[in-house]
């Protein structure tokens, strides 16, 4: 079985040409199909947040603020305390599975998933999106409830990537 | 134009006559005691075929999971899962995407960020390959509520996929030095992101637009899906809209850490007997062809062994061609049932040498009793052997062995 470690090793060992400044693959267009994407076109679509958090938008929130947003917009599916598994969701708080929130590798992943997928209404349809402040507050709330940060810690674009997740310590 | 319309009308008329003949046969059968319940519309059937009304095989929701619809493997023939029966596990809406408006963006650590329309993708060189998509939880549900092979292994399907190799698209955009990982993103309201190493992306991944010779169905990702052969089903994102090349893993969820201690994305070797299987009943003593499916994310299936006595004796099943890497492989095993109680099991080995563990061996490794699985799901990436008991009266039931 291939392992992640093995893949990472293989990628470090040059199976491909990795000379400085030279693209790894391909020197030019072969088929001349597709249209160039400008930075302005890409920006609104580029929502994935990496572990370094460089894509995070301005905004901030604390666990206290997040508790209010959670009660209003999340508890309907995730339960009052986040430990519940209503609607067959994974527990947001205290989960033991490798893939539960408490075992994410990066705190930025919590922000990312809330931002691009949540919330759903009771019919599991997404009819609204959250503001950046709300996402920061909810992220802080989940980190606090999982015992990773303090209740008063302010989470923003600078502090979030620095949060040490227990699975990566 | 008039001539064409005339021709079309004439075609439909002749079609109706042909259908009338078919119905006529039905009428004869009616005379022998069967009553047709509905008239078959010739136009509908000839324009796009439908199943006989006597065929009812369908997806069913997983026990307690209304958003997971399972492939009826007990009815499957060959290795191809029809698009309409391919499993569906979706957490959000099924988007209704107009392919004329849909674009795939490839950007990040590339030389030339590009948008590709669906029409442009279809102009490019393409490949058609047969691969399975296997949910990371497939085979894990052995709980008491999970009684059939559809329940236990229905998060699985195997189709012929047609699309553009991702390596070709990344050659068009070029890659910058330091590019190591690829993030893919879906266009449903979940906007799922999955991240894979660049090496896998350049190996055999594809941006697929075809399934089983026709466009993807909406619930399978129309108009575009990401195909990542052999890896966890959830990575094979549907409604693909964006691919971003990055330097480090942008993992939403960490990869699973199985018993071996390694992180991995690859689906393990697995097999299951689909006939006879849980909930079925043997019509009487005599000949039955035991059959089922085997697969492995690591490559091709090399061997499938069958036991009819609960693992005391194993004999090789015949593997039916084609035997393809990262694809379902059909196995056959002739069996004469003499009316005795029997315990049917299949055990697959792939060409990397991986062998399916028995449930008993897995339980021992995990330090739990067999009864533990009555109420718990198996850990993923284990692919344990499934056991079907045949009782003396011919009933086939799932058991823990």
State the helix count of chain B: 7
**Series of secondary-structure elements of chain A, N-terminal to C-terminal:** HEHEHHHHE
Q: Can you tell me the CATH class of the largest domain in chain B?
A: Alpha Beta
User: Per the principal axes of the C-alpha atoms, what is the gross shape of chain A?
Assistant: globular
Uncertain residue segments of chain A: 6-23
Strand content of chain B: 25-35%
CATH 4th-level superfamily of the largest domain in chain B: Oxidoreductase, molybdopterin-binding domain
What ranges of chain B have pLDDT less than 50 throughout 5 or more consecutive residues?
Answer: 1-33, 258-262
Structural class of chain A: mainly alpha
Number of helical elements of chain A: 6
Question: What can you tell me about this protein's structure?
Answer:
The complex is a heterodimer of chains A (169) and B (401). With 169 residues, chain A is mostly helical. Chain A contains six helices and three strands. In chain A, 32% of the residues are buried. Mean pLDDT of chain A is 84; it is low at 6-23. Chain B has helices spanning 2-31, 42-47, 118-123, 149-153, 166-173, 198-203, 359-366; strands spanning 60-62, 65-70, 88-89, 103-108, 114-117, 127-134, 156-165, 181-186, 193-197, 206-211, 214-215, 225-227, 240-246, 270-275, 286-295, 301-307, 315-316, 318-319, 329-337, 342-350, 387-390, 396-399. The longest helix of chain B has 30 residues, at 2-31. Chains A and B meet through helix 1, strand 1 and helix 5 of A and strand 4, strand 5, helix 5, helix 6 and strand 13 of B. Strand 1 of chain A pairs antiparallel with strand 5 (114-117) of chain B, so a sheet runs across the interface.
């Amino acid at each position: 079985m291939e392992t992640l470690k093995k893949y990472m090793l293989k990628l470090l060992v040059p199976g491909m040409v990795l000379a400085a400044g030279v693209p790894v693959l391909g020197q030019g267009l072969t088929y001349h199909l597709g249209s160039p994407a400008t930075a302005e076109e890409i920006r609104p679509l580029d929502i994935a947040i990496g572990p370094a958090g460089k894509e995070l938008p301005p905004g901030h929130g604390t666990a206290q603020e997040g508790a209010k947003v959670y009660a209003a917009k999340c508890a309907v599916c995730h339960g009052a305390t986040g430990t519940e598994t209503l609607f067959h969701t994974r527990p947001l708080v205290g989960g033991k599975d490798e893939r539960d929130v408490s075992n994410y590798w990066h705190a930025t992943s919590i922000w990312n998933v809330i931002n691009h997928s949540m919330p759903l209404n009771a019919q599991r349809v997404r009819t609204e999106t959250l503001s950046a402040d709300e996402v920061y507050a909810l992220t802080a709330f989940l980190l606090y409830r999982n015992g990773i940060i303090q209740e008063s810690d302010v989470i923003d674009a600078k502090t979030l990537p620095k949060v040490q997740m227990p699975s990566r310590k | 134009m008039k001539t064409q319309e005339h021709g079309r009308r004439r075609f439909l008329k002749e079609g109706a006559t042909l259908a009338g003949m078919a119905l006529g046969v039905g009428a004869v059968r009616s005379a022998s005691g069967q009553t047709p319940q509905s008239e078959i519309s010739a136009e509908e059937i000839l324009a796009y075929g439908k199943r006989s009304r006597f065929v009812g095989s369908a997806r069913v929701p997983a026990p307690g999971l209304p958003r997971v619809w399972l492939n009826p493997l007990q009815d499957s023939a060959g290795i191809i899962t029809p698009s309409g029966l391919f499993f569906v596990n979706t957490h959000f809406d099924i988007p209704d995407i107009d392919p004329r408006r849909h674009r795939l963006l490839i950007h990040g650590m590339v030389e030339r960020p590009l948008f590709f329309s669906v029409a442009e993708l279809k102009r490019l060189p393409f490949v058609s390959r047969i691969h399975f998509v296997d949910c990371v939880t497939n085979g894990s549900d052995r709980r008491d509520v999970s009684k059939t092979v559809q329940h236990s292994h229905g998060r699985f399907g195997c189709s012929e996929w047609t699309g553009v190799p991702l390596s070709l698209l990344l050659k068009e955009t070029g890659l910058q030095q330091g590019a190591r990982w690829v993030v893919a993103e879906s266009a449903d309201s979940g906007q799922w992101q999955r991240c894979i190493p660049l090496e896998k992306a350049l190996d055999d991944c594809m941006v697929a637009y075809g399934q089983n010779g026709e466009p993807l169905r909406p619930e399978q990702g129309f108009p575009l899906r990401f195909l990542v052969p052999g890896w966890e089903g959830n990575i094979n994102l549907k409604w693909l809209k964006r691919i971003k090349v990055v330097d480090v893993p942008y993992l939403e969820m960490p990869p699973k850490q199985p018993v071996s201690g390694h992180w991995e994305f690859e689906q393990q070797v697995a097999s299951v007997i689909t006939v006879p299987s849980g909930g079925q009943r043997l019509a009487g003593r005599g000949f039955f062809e035991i059959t089922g499916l085997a697969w492995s994310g690591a490559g091709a299936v090399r061997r499938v062994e069958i036991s009819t006595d609960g693992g005391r004796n194993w004999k090789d099943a015949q593997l039916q061609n084609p035997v393809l890497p990262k694809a379902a492989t059909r196995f056959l095993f002739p069996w004469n049932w003499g009316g005795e109680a029997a315990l049917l099991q299949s055990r697959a080995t792939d060409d990397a040498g991986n062998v399916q563990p028995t449930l008993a061996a897995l339980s021992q490794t995990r330090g739990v009793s067999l009864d533990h699985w009555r109420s718990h799901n198996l850990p993923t990436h284990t692919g344990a052997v499934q056991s079907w008991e045949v009782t003396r009266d011919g009933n086939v039931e799932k058991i823990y062995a």
